[in-house]
What does this fold into?
Amino acid sequence: MKKNGGIRFLRWLILFAKRFLKDDMPASSAQLTYYLTLALFPFLVFLINLLSYTKLSTWSLTEDLLTVLPAGTMQIITSVIRETIEAKSTTLLSFSALFALFSTSRAMNALNRALNKAYRVQGTRPIWKNAMLSFLFTMGLIVLIVATLSLMVFGQLIGEHLFTLLGASVYFLHIWNLMRYFLPVAIMVLIFSLFYRFMPNTEVRFSNVWRGAVFSTIGWIVASLLFSYYVNRFGSYTRVYGSLGGIIVFLVWLYLSSFILLVGGEINAVLLYGDSKIK
It folds into this structure.
């Protein structure tokens, strides 16, 4: 049985590799990276500008999230945060929001085309429907980021408030402290599942997409941590590229993220159709 299972898995890997290369997913990952790059910094400017009008500490909200990123990437983003705080402006807030929404919508369109290619379907949806889906998934990404920030930064305070409100036992706080790191992961799985469920122009059930969503979530977390460790310990981007080293690191990390997201979609397509749509 184990031998047969190993042979089936090997055949599946070969089929997956054929489809992945035929669909030219590395090129699609590069396209998705381009639009995400255009979207990320306007969105970051918008978020920091918005927070600057509150009593919340901008640095406290971002420092925990930045720890998963490579050092060069952290330097770029912290530089953007610093300049945004100094240039607090309602005009900047409005323009950054509009540009971030437009660029993220383009990224969602690129993801839609890549997943359609994986499922061997044509993009025949009306323009208005594509625009609506892009907008909804853009909002989903914003919810993911905000929820992650909130749980990582305010998780302890939220847990203590619930502890007092519910009159729970002291074990509640211990469980909550574990849950506040698990919940962002669960939200990521949910958002990725929604991507894979509704983005392709074909009928797909949630039961057909959860494995790709779990792979993408775990893959992104592990790849980000390993890449960050490599760059911080062994990387020589600064010596090779000079002042551009941080930008190169950021683009490589974003490409890895896009790559993993598309691999998850291809996994779902192969598991659903097998070799029936290899051509």
Remarks:
- Residues 26-112+121-273 form one domain.
- The mean pLDDT is 76.
- The chain has one domain: 26-112+121-273.
- Residues 163 and 172 are 7 Å apart (CA to CA).
